[in-house]
């Protein structure tokens, strides 16, 4: 989904909002807190969204839009099918690494933001399926059932996103994605 047209000032404010929320979370912040910390008026914030909840959703969407672009750029620079899968999941891990646990917990507890994360997780799982299918088609991967491998990846990604893997393994989201990349590449390699 394309980003709305914003002035340079609004784009800067959105970047600063994303930096604040991803570092500190948002559940305990009021609109007054946001305005104070971002050194702007509430009216200026209302130009981005009509409520604190709307601001959070805009910030989460903006973060994942940029993360997706960065991940795809990394994949586009890679030709080998194994390296493409590894590059994709490693780049996802890199994009998740700067997110604070507080932010991720707040996203999990706020349904509109959680849906944005879940939608991005579904798209990422589909992209992994696609990369595996391309590798099988090119003969770089053994003839695996790509839908099954994709579903295993998707299930693991959902567990990462929901915090289940961290609870059971102690791995951060980024570390879990790195482990998933290693597991998938080794599972499909000839």
TrEMBL record:
<keyword id="KW-0805">Transcription regulation</keyword>
<dbReference type="GO" id="GO:0000976">
    <property type="term" value="F:transcription cis-regulatory region binding"/>
</dbReference>
<dbReference type="InterPro" id="IPR050109">
    <property type="entry name" value="HTH-type_TetR-like_transc_reg"/>
</dbReference>
<dbReference type="InterPro" id="IPR001647">
    <property type="entry name" value="HTH_TetR"/>
</dbReference>
<feature type="domain" description="HTH tetR-type">
    <location>
        <begin position="7"/>
        <end position="67"/>
    </location>
</feature>
<protein>
    <submittedName>
        <fullName>TetR family transcriptional regulator</fullName>
    </submittedName>
</protein>
<dbReference type="InterPro" id="IPR009057">
    <property type="entry name" value="Homeodomain-like_sf"/>
</dbReference>
<keyword id="KW-0804">Transcription</keyword>
<feature type="DNA-binding region" description="H-T-H motif">
    <location>
        <begin position="30"/>
        <end position="49"/>
    </location>
</feature>
<dbReference type="Pfam" id="PF00440">
    <property type="entry name" value="TetR_N"/>
</dbReference>
<keyword id="KW-0238">DNA-binding</keyword>
<dbReference type="GO" id="GO:0003700">
    <property type="term" value="F:DNA-binding transcription factor activity"/>
</dbReference>
<dbReference type="InterPro" id="IPR036271">
    <property type="entry name" value="Tet_transcr_reg_TetR-rel_C_sf"/>
</dbReference>
